[in-house]
Amino acid sequence: MAAIVRSCGGGGHLIFRNLGRQVSQRGYVAVHHSMGPGHIKSAPRITHFTDVTWSWLRRNNMGVLGVVGIRYNSTDVERTQPSMQAADTSLSPPDAVAPNITSEVPPAMSTDAPLTEVTPVRFEAPTTHDIMQAAAETGVDPSLAELGLGGWTPIGLLQSTIDMCHSTLHLPWWASIVCCTLLARSLMFPLIVKGQKNAINLNNVMPQIQKMNEKINEARTMGNKWEVAHLTAELQAFMKKHGVNPLKNFMVPLAQMPVFISFFIGLRRMATLPIMSMMTGGVFWFTDLTAADPYFILPIMTSLTMLTIIELGSELGVENPQMKTMKNVMRVVALMILPLTASFPTAIFTYWMTSNTFTIAQISLLKVPAVRQWLKMPNKIQHDPSSLKKNEGFMKGMKSGWKNASLASEVENRQRRAALRWKEAGTGPVPQTFTYDPTKQTPAGAHGIKTKGTVRKK
Fold it and tell me: How far apart are the first and last CA of the chain?
């Protein structure tokens, strides 16, 4: 490692290359590249080369004159070969100095080129295709995280649970899906029981609730707000006393909806990638859980089980006129989904069939008197049809509700206009109710009586 000086005429031009922190030689002269021979004696002398010296030289465009060889002080071992050849330090007489001094820098000793060059290497994350290709070659499934599955979302937690059943319990994929489905439906069983209790209690007091609702509608139609508020408070107190709430009937479907969506999306993503072992993780005729059923047996069985659930009754265990209308709608839906779901992966139908079978068994179980008594479910009262309000049907109910709402709005607008007129009467000018101005009328007893153009004084 050295600094080399090339002498050209009377000037000196220095080439720096990897100076050390301190050199063993002393007494070097720092000169500017543009200096002539006459300025060399007045140039500052440098006794040690340090990082500061190196920076100062470069900042001031200075060189070092008279350097033959430089090595690090820390190099104790003798070198068998010189670090570099000695520089030619001979100087030409002043009169032989050319006006334009140029020095050629060997390419190998260029100051711009580093001592060693490091070529950067880019490391790119493997794609899903690369991971799946490696899994196909090794026969080992990658983790869900490597495939972009799993996580802490409801869908990710469900995927992790299914994968745990497959990897930890060493169950095939179809059995893992069945186990997770049964686990999810079993956890929702207490909610189903609570929903049935609320539906039965609501059915038992339905005649009283309908009568109170009729009174509220009449008061609303007449525009009697005080009566509406009073009857509404009575209805709320009555339902609280019997522990019923019509909104609780929506508790069961609202709780089941996110579970169904999580299973559907989670299994569809696992089958779409696909996870390689799921291609052989089925059973019977559907060994490939990532493909559709080639014989359409699973879609047909799913539609049939849905129709069975509709005919057996809802999970609430209570039927009313509104539910009869919903039955007809659900029958149509059960038939329409057959062509729409025929292309779904069999992994989804494995969940769907298991869930429908569990629902059928649950409805049948909750109809057993001993089970109902053990669960402390109330007895359902069969009301006389004449005591219940006749169902008007969907369209008639819509028309009746629209008519009642229109009447209530008209009454409210009428009351608003009356209140506005009353306010204007108290703050506005006095309306004229006489054909003459009563404030300008002269009393007859004080100034006389005007008769036929004459005034008679007393």
Answer: 146
